[in-house]
Amino acid sequence: MNPAMAMDSSARLPRPVALRVITENIPEELKLLRQWVVWKYEFDEGRTRWTKPPWRADGRGHASSTNPTTWSEYETALAAYRKDGFDGIGFVLTTDLGIVGVDLDHCYNPATKTLAPWATTIIDHFNSYTEVSPSGTGARIFLRGQLPAGGHKKGNIEIYSGGRYLTVTGCVLQKCA
């Protein structure tokens, strides 16, 4: 690699600041499930961007979206988020739950409090619990349903029913927008 092309740490984008978690808005149906992790921003030098890998609520390393022994109850994850320097909490999707997560990136303008028309169409179609993502510029939808195996990503839209975790803010679109 050309040294001039390499990104040094001084050229790194500043660490993002996540929206705070608004616990009272998170659906009780999700809170009752032992599918919770915490997360914090980490800089991935290889991809030269900030990422949000899941962590175990007990702080003993990264969590796995396919290993339930690394997940915890909602209250445990929430307590870790509040005291241990994590940036947020997340919910792990597994196909047996019948819960689908839709991740819409770069669709919300917090300055104007408006959604991109394509995102509005999707959100209206699903008519389900929708919240603003930790960046404040995306949206997350949780709904009942099943998908074929694997995940699906096209452009700024991702949809999963297993093998992934999604961050959860509780910043309900209708209330935070």
Explain this structure.
With 177 residues, the chain is of the alpha+beta class. It has one domain (19-176). The protein is 16% helix and 28% strand. It is built from four helices and 13 strands. It has a five-stranded antiparallel sheet. It is globular. The termini are far apart.
Percentage of residues in DSSP E strands = 25-35%
Category by helix and strand content: alpha+beta
Radius of gyration: 16 Å
Mean pLDDT: 91
So what's the overall shape? globular
Secondary structure: number of strands: 13
Quaternary structure of the protein: single chain
Order of helices and strands: HEEEEHEEEEHEEEEEH
Helix segment tally = 4
Approximate helicity band: 10-25%
Cross-sheet strand order for the largest sheet: 9-10-6-12-11
Domains, number: 1
Would you identify the regions where 5 or more consecutive residues have pLDDT less than 50?
1-9
Termini, distance in Å?
A: 43 Å
Largest sheet: 5 strands, antiparallel
